[in-house]
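Hey, I'm writing a tutorial for new members on how sequence and structure tokens pair up, and I'd like a real worked example in the thread rather than a made-up one. If someone can provide the structure for the chain below, I'll link this post from the tutorial.
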Amino acid sequence: MADVLFGTSGSTGDSKPIVRTEESLMMDASALVSAFPELWGSRPAVVASVRPEHMYGALWKVRAPEVAKCVTEPSTVFSVEELSAACERFGKVLFVTTPSFLEKALLHPDFAALSGRFAGIVTSGSLLRGETSLTVAKVAGICPLEIFGSTETGTVASRRRTEGDEWTVFPGVEASLSEDGRLVVDSPFAMERPFVMSDSVRFTAPGRFLLLGRTDRRVKILEKYVSLNSVERALESHGLVDRARVEAYGESVPRLGALVVLSEEGRKVLAGSSFAAVAGRLRRDLLSSAGELAFPRRVRFVRELPVNEQGKTTAAAARAELSLWCQEPVVLEWSSTDAALRARMVFPPDAECFKGHFPGYPVLPGVAQLYFLRRFSRQAFADFPETATYRRLKFQKIVLLGREVVLEVMRMGESRFSFSLTCDTGPCSSGIVERTS
């Protein structure tokens, strides 16, 4: 049978090409249908927010539905509105998605209305947080099935959080532990047998294990090795932090940098403080657990971590975020649908984008207003144009440091949007954005 070329996700380094045989893919797909009859028994329509170019999508959106003789929605779902429309067309659906999509869906006002419309929800690509899984189970009426595997091995294990945190090894797969604590997989779906993964695990029973983190995320900083996973866990243990991603940046002298998503409490603290003060507080509070050497030299506070189509934050994307010219404002409230975005935010006093414009009387430049318009709109709308034409631009009032502003973006058509930025004194700027032809 023909070979199929995939690329690894690049979550811990550069993406690598992996060749899989069509035979191994169909064996994996057939095993998926046999292992989870509750998903396929009613022959639901398969709807996916992932593309078939990646291993996860290739198995769950193309080959497994073919084995189960299920109808597949050919287009990729990018929003809750599109998912809702698919549910209306098909009735019961098997939804193949990622953790990042589910986290955004839980914030959407219409997601709860889809309760009872799912034959199953399957997620993979990155780890689904326990609280997210249990909230989806409550809101959507079904607990997501999490799939663990890799491009090199195919499917390795699965779990549902309502049954606990342990992973159950997939039927037909044998799993063991290497001398250095890594997961060893002997699988009929893998291209190499056995295959030693870069995941540290602890077996709790035969065929059941807990994931302890990646072993390939160690970097040398000033002659000492630092575990990026350990620094992330230390940051995420803090009450002001919801999520963190740590990477090394700089070529000649590597340093640690962190992208930090603040908790609700953290956002409130930052809104009344400064970037430097909150980063300093994290440093002081975490010295005992992370160590001064391991604390990131650069901390960037972001509304969300950057993710790719597979729902993963890649090393390259994280480093790119760390190199951006300025920090985001603090987003205090966020509401978005496929038709509209509303974000209430404030700029801390040490926001870089105010410096030099103007000395002694800092105001937010128009170019910075458009920069944050594009940045936040791309998080809300899949088709917000990267290359755009701006029409009817008006800059009516200045935006001062420390003043709350509200960004509103409304869809006017495909890849065409209107926007306004407003503060307590009235409209600050407005205009129309459309794709450059």
